[in-house]
Amino acid sequence: MDEVLADTIGKFITIYEQRHNTKIGINDFPGKEFNEVLPEEIRHTLREYINEPGFFRDIPVMEGAIPVVQQLHEKYDVYIVSAAMEFKYSMTAKLEWLNEHFPFISWTNIVFCGHKIVDVDIMIDDRVKNFINFGGRKILFTSPHNLAVCDYERVNTWEEVGKLLL
Amino acid sequence: MDEVLADTIGKFITIYEQRHNTKIGINDFPGKEFNEVLPEEIRHTLREYINEPGFFRDIPVMEGAIPVVQQLHEKYDVYIVSAAMEFKYSMTAKLEWLNEHFPFISWTNIVFCGHKIVDVDIMIDDRVKNFINFGGRKILFTSPHNLAVCDYERVNTWEEVGKLLL
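Structure tokens for the assembled complex are given below, as produced in the milestone run.
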């Protein structure tokens, strides 16, 4: 979900601009995690914001995700798999978010986990760690933190996902 | 979780004895689902009770589960996989329940899903439907509703799981 379906970094940027009067551009951090571009004195706040109830409820949808996932859903058996377990109060918000923006995805096809031990044929993910024990086709969805990774088939946008899989 | 780690039917029986003054024995329903043994006029209440916030928080642990899962965890990479997604308010309660009774299971090894599309070697489950698309070793944990099933390796207790896998 985060950084593939949900523009979580976009929400981070909004929060830090509003609450800390900082200016962070999406292009400020190639190869870095978001917390690494924050001034050190406010870096600890990121985890607090993520843990706020409802943090995951109003994250913007990634551009172009809805129509492409809808079409993928018509052609494939699409599962949404999110490492939601680390933030236990994220789960209800994430489920409501999915029901709002992707209502065609049934509860049967949603997985909240820690490690992504799913038995699927194709995985679209921004995190290389989720590919390590995965035997299927790995498609890396571009996010600032993974810009330096060269080992995987890569997509930069949902439009590109559509061209690849539809 | 339900009917394997958690004695959900035990909690159902307690609820119906307390709230409806009925008497239901665990041996009253070989081959049946719990709702099928309820008098028809109160059958609709089961889903209401399951949907009560906190329903899943205080379910008794299945006899012998904790020490055997602890030992399995020392020998194997144990994941807890629960079809929690159908009842969206069950997830936080289920996670808290696991943290209380199985604190040695890390959040990384917990999966809440609809369909159990997990890539594991061995699955212990009471529901035959979860075995259908699963290629690994299937171990059926006895529950009243599956007593008539003959097609799978079966365990009746956690003691038997321990004998089989430890």
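Chain B has one domain: 1-166. The domain at 1-166 of chain B is CATH 3.40.50.1000 (Rossmann fold). Further analysis is deferred to the final report.
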